Amino acid sequence: MMSLDKTKYGISEEFIERVMESAAGFLNHEKLDQLLGLFQKESEKHIFTRDSESNLLRIISSLYDMRSFLSDAINYPHHIEILVAVAVNSNYLCDIIVRNPEYLYQIFDTDYLNKPIFQENLSTELDEGTGKFKTFNSKLNYIKGFKRRYLLKIGLTDILFNSDVQNVTQSLSYLAKNIACKLFALCFEQIEEKYSIKCSSNYCIVALGKLGGNELNYSSDIDLIIFYDKDETFERINKEYHEILTEAIHLFVQSSNAVTDKGFIYRVDFRLRPDGRNSPLCRSITDYFRYYETRGEDWERQMLIKLGYCGGSKLLYNEFFNFIQGFVYNSLITKSIATKVMKMKENIEKKNSSEMNVKLFSGGIRDIEFSVQTLQLINGARVKKIRNPNTLESIELLMESELLTESEGEIFKSAYYFYRKTEHYLQLMNDIQTHTLPSSEDMLLKLSSYLGFETISQFQTALESHRNNVREIYLSIVNIVDSDKEASNDLSEISFSEVNKANRNFAYLEKGTGLLGQKEFDSRTIELFSDIKGTFIKRLNESLDPDKTLENFTKIILLVPIKSIWYSELKNNWFLDAVLQNCEFNQRGIDLLIQNKSLLDLLLSRQIFRKEILSSGTIKDVNKVQLILSVNYAIKLIEPSELSKALSDWVIDKIKLIVANNNISEKFFVAGLGSCGSREMGLGSDVDLLVISENTDGSAKIQNIFQRVLEDFRKELKPIQVDFRLRPEGKRSQLVWDIGGYSDYIKKRILPWELQSITKIRFIEGNKKLFEKFVELAAEKVDSLEPEYLLNNVRGIYKKYHSENLLSANEQTNLKKVKGGLFDIDYTLQYLIIQNPHLFRLCLGKTLQEKGELIRETNPGLEGLAELLENHS
Fold first, then answer.
1. Is the bond into 719 cis (omega within 30 degrees of 0)?
2. β-strands 283-284, 268-269: how paired?
3. How many C-alpha atoms does 778 have within 13 Å on its Cβ side?
4. Residue 105, C-beta contacts closer than 8 angstroms, at least 6 positions apart
5. pLDDT tens across 634-656, in order?
6. Are 309 and 230 in contact (CB under 8 A)?
7. Are 194 and 177 in contact (CB under 8 A)?
8. Of residues 743, 602, 716, 589, the one with CA closest to residue 657
9. Helix, strand, or coil (residue 717)
């Protein structure tokens, strides 16, 4: 027996005795001495502790034929090299061998051990292996064994330094992707079999995070999202495709995450899907496109850099990948993204106060990843070659593109290898998801030795150097201060009547915060609002009615589908002022926008602010006309008289067109009365029309024609009210009167107030001579009126009007109805006009101001007329 050095880390007497017992009777003294010498030699290469020795004994004791192993080990020393390396460095791999000792001779085969892992080979082997089993559970158990076998191969090449970090993480990723793809396919088949259906729709599984970048750890979760091309309905079982797919996802998660006596597969996470854990597990690819297009956030851009195909339809994946490139690598992304990345990392570091976490601490793995991703986001639209999900490959590409210097790139790569090797060692030791350096001195010494350091102090010095170097580069990349400072969100100085409501509205505008506190806006939209926030608050503070202004502005933003486009346009201060003035002074315009969201584009395009827009004849919709005029009036681009004239002329032209389209053969005319006739329409005005025909011998025919025409008027001019209510006898009489009947009515029964209304008549369409004949009949009647009769009648109507239009307390500012208001001015002028048939003829269809000038010329000494006209203005 050879003499052994019984040091702290040498082979124990117990181990020697156990080997001797096993070798008794088939190994002579010389062979036994040689065997123990090999164990001793290998143990001296490592920090060989009691735990290591215990692992080694567990492995040897689990072997089906220990004697054969001991004999072979003398001839093949690398067998002992492998066992000692596993026993020292990985309790996890040791457990795999003890559980499946049949794997041992496979890993003793150096050709097998060092053979690269390819996705296609894994897929084929999985298909063939699962195909040998019939039940779902037996297939699951095969997959678990398949994973253990390949993890042993990958882990051992890692421990023996036969494979670098890049190959190890890639192999782990290939293994996980193939297993996830196969497992999901099996789960989906189970659901199809359950309902006896066959789906024609396609799904796609997308890998994210480390799996998407082909840089998986030994104990990483696998981050996935899933979508489909189209929904289909299965009427027999009353289900749709998305329900079938969701059920398959639940089975997949349960099957993968569940821990049984056969182990578990992977911890699967779908939380990175659009809208997170509270959203459906799967949606159509169109839904995903819509989400990223309208609400995708900057952190999701960063996340989607690490996008990779996992399973399902490759065509569907390619469609998704091509769309996502435009979202992730957007030319509108500015250097301000770096500030957001820095803030995100600061929050991570605040939550992780540990200085032992190589992933999250300052200068750790996250600093490298975030630096790389920041450079990709800022430059990826311009430099397409840097679009890569793998960190190490991206560092190389950034160096080639001169976005990282050679020195910076080498520092990142060296630190990344160092950190990932450390992670892998810690995770292989006990199969736990950890990134934290051990506090145990023995464990720290093992780690230091494994990484090639003679002492813990040397390891710690190297660690500190990597941290400092990485942090310095990270800060040089992300510590870019954007020139636009964030405006203060201070509403306290604004005199809101309803403060809580104002705060809720502002919270929505700023971040899309809803009633339940959920944030709906993406980071891009939030950033754009911050650009206008200071000016917005300043304008609210200057507003006479900040409550109304803020409320109406919020209503607009609630309506628009893509908030970011509006916020971007509102960075133009003139446009922002114009919109806010309308929110404060143009309730009718805001109501029109709410009732018809399509009008929002007219406002956003700013075509609405061109005074000549109506004269082009391209605007056919009355709502657009009212919106254009009200918006321009609110910002004082047009005067009240211009609004009235433009609206009246548009309505008159519309009436002409409708009449012409009806191809009426009878001789008639259509005339406007009231504000339409005098071209003084306001946004709330009705349209009063008068229709007179030459004769009504075919009474039913002409009535039916104009009943249809009236319906066309109402349809085309809605919401403006249109009626023929100023005809003789009012609504009780026939719709159309002939000139003879009207002549008799004017001579015998017409009242002065009706003659007053005729002062606002304007010919619109039809027979002009018939219209002139009607006007002459009215003028002759004016000439025949007795002054006393006229005065008494006008006074009576005036008193009746005000008695029927008594104002309530909140209507005291109604400028039309109040005594001394617009009605009184108009009524007075009409009274003056119908005292003189010549003046009556001159004033027909004129505006109030034009009538005033004609009255002044006819009655030069009339007192108070100037004041009357000035008050109207």
1. yes
2. unpaired
3. 26
4. none
5. 888 888 888 888 898 999 999 99
6. no
7. no
8. 716
9. helix
